């Protein structure tokens, strides 16, 4: 059965998701696109139906499942609308702007007794991150001591304002660390550099593993994400990214992607394939569920709320309900 997907949002990420659904996702068809800008909706739809009202599309009988790629502040309400009508939804991160909104999603999903929400923490589907996890899980480097993360964007997009370097960017490291180490964070300390960007974030897990992250929204040279796990018996690092090597003027240079879609294209494709397969088979995949979405947002919210007030933030996080384990 081909799954008819309705896409909300036809901006940078949405148009990429539209292309992936049209060209790279067996078992799915792009059945509708909704965007406030009709030209963007038309361009992404490539002949499928377009909508200006997301709720009309979500409720339409032509749509089996929904992919949300609209601005962050719209996510929670749209996910709730999908849950109300019992439709599977893949929502770009973050799941919600506040922990309260995210918890309402978790509660509504649990009341439906069926897991319908996946959150687009796509790094979990990146081949290089999967190799890192595989190596760590196999015990190759022994017990973990430190995880080092680098998260650099060349230039902050114009919509990146206020605390979004945490709520929109650092949330990736919150999710990937929990996923890699299979544990929760317990404390976080943020140091802001002279210009307010980059941030240096030092966290500690429940098991005492130290996590360091540089979140840099304006590194100027390219999009660069890196991670390594330091273990008791060795270190495992992310391997090469999709890139090219330029030989010129007596130098050999490895180029960086310009933004995250080119770096994580494979991950986006695999994530969408896995989501469609889960809808077809009912078997969960490695993606982030609503609980993961809630925890990442809750951690981000506690850091943002306490930033500049407490140098060391003691996180307070609830226990995962069996519904999600
Ligand atoms: C952006 O929204 C993303 O999700 C990218 O993956 C991340 O690297 C970037 O920092 C965010 O702004």
Automatic annotation (TrEMBL):
Pfam families (alphabetical): GFO_IDH_MocA (PF01408), GFO_IDH_MocA_C3 (PF22725)
Superkingdom of origin: Bacteria
All residue ranges annotated as the Gfo/Idh/MocA-like oxidoreductase N-terminal domain in the record: 4-121
Protein name in the entry: Gfo/Idh/MocA family oxidoreductase
Family under the similarity heading: Belongs to the Gfo/Idh/MocA family.
Keyword Magnesium belongs to the record: no
InterPro entries assigned: Gfo/Idh/MocA-like_OxRdtase_N (IPR000683), GFO_IDH_MocA-like_dom (IPR055170)
Domain GFO/IDH/MocA-like oxidoreductase: from-to ranges: 129-236
Keyword terms of this UniProt record: Oxidoreductase
């Amino acid at each position: 059965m081909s799954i008819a997907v309705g896409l909300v949002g036809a901006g940078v990420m949405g148009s990429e998701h539209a292309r992936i659904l049209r060209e790279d996702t067996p078992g799915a068809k792009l059945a509708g696109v909704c965007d406030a800008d009709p030209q963007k909706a038309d361009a992404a739809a490539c002949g499928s139906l377009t909508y200006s009202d997301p709720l009309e599309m979500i409720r339409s009988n032509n749509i089996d499942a929904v992919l949300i790629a609209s601005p962050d502040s719209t996510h929670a309400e749209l996910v709730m609308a999908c849950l109300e009508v019992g439709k599977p939804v893949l929502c770009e991160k973050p799941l919600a702007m506040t922990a309260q909104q995210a918890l309402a999603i978790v509660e509504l999903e649990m009341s439906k007794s069926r897991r319908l929400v996946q959150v687009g923490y796509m790094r979990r589907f990146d081949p290089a991150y999967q190799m890192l996890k595989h190596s760590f899980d196999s015990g190759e480097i022994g017990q973990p001591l430190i995880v080092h993360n680098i998260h650099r964007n060349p230039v902050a997009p114009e919509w990146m304002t206020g605390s979004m370097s945490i709520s929109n960017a650092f949330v990736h490291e919150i999710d990937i660390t929990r996923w890699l180490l299979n544990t929760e964070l317990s404390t976080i300390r943020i140091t802001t550099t002279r210009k307010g960007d980059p941030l240096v974030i030092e966290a500690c897990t429940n098991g005492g593993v130290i996590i360091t992250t540089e979140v840099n929204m304006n590194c100027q040279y390219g999009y660069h994400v890196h991670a390594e796990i330091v273990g008791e018996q060795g270190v495992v690092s992310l391997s090469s990214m999709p890139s090219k090597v330029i030989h010129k003027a007596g130098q050999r240079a490895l180029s960086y992607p310009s933004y995250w879609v080119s770096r994580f294209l494979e991950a986006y494709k695999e994530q969408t394939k896995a989501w469609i397969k889960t809808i077809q088979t009912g078997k969960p995949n490695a993606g982030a569920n609503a609980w993961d979405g809630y925890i990442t947002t809750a951690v981000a919210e506690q850091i943002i709320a306490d930033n500049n007030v407490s140098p060391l933030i003691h996180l307070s996080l609830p226990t995962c309900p069996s519904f999600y384990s």
